[in-house]
Specification:
24% of the residues lie in helices and 37% in strands. The protein contains six helices and twelve strands. The strands form two sheets. Strands 2-1-6-5-4-3 form a six-stranded mixed β-sheet, with helices on one face. The longest helix is centred in the N-terminal third of the chain and has 17 residues, at 54-70. Residues 5-9 have low confidence and may be disordered.
């Protein structure tokens, strides 16, 4: 596994768990990461499924480390958005397999709970890692209010109106799907499909808005970037729908 030296976390793993989770794994710092997670943390991801408890978490980190080593992975952390009860860190994996390079978008969501408990949910396209997707994070039956610029996109997707979807984006607005493929604003409805999402959690800083929303019996993660116009400049989807 290759390391980006400037992204190697300090031994104390200071920072939000969502920021240091994959940086620590790539740096093979699983024991300090386990201590940061604590005994009450839960981890849920579309590659291996949900897990909780010290022994299970140790096995889960080992499984991720093995998978990342198998693909000679390099990780680049990009953006973190902080919300009232959850934070989201976006990043990119560069994977090598059979002489080919693949860039896989990944996002780690950390939900803060009572008594210093945390729930980490990892979002990425599992098929890009050459694995069969496990059932991803399940809905939590929560309610959340989404900012209007992002809510307009979700409402337009539910209506199935391609023109309305496109109108919610700036002229050069685009969607990047879970596989890392870019779609222009006129192709967004076709890429996602007509779907109705129930918003369960939001992290918003005024410019970037991460929305956790349920689709049937599973969760999906959208990250909206607001442009100066007030419309959506970009939408990054981290779930295979």
């Amino acid at each position: 596994m290759r390391h980006v030296e400037e992204d190697r976390p300090p031994s104390s793993l200071r920072g939000r768990l969502c920021e240091v989770f994959f940086s620590a794994l790539v740096a093979e710092m699983t024991e300090p990461l386990l201590r940061r997670l604590g005994n009450k943390a839960t981890v849920d991801d579309p590659v291996f499924g949900p897990t909780a408890g010290p022994e299970s978490l140790h096995g889960r980190l080992a499984a991720w480390l093995g998978l990342l080593n198998e693909h000679d992975s390099q990780y680049e952390r990009t953006t973190t958005v902080v919300g009232a009860d959850r934070d989201v860190t976006e990043g990119l994996f560069e994977l090598r397999a059979d002489g080919h390079h693949t860039m896989v978008p990944v996002a780690v969501l950390m939900e803060r709970k009572r008594e210093r408990e945390v729930a980490l949910r990892i979002y990425l396209g599992a098929s890009a890692l050459g694995t069969k997707a496990a059932k991803g994070p399940k809905p939590t039956a929560q309610e959340a209010v989404v900012p209007s610029f992002a809510g307009e996109v979700l409402d337009a997707l539910a209506s199935g109106n391609a023109s309305r979807v496109a109108a919610a984006f700036e002229q050069d607005g685009s969607l990047r799907d879970a596989a890392g493929v870019e779609h222009g604003r006129d192709a967004i409805l076709r890429a996602i499909g007509q779907r109705t999402f129930h918003v369960e959690g939001v992290a918003d800083d005024g410019r970037t808005c991460a929305v956790e929303a349920s689709l049937g019996d599973r969760l999906a993660l959208f990250v909206f970037q607001r442009g100066d116009s007030g419309l959506v400049r970009s939408l990054r989807l981290y779930s295979e729908l």
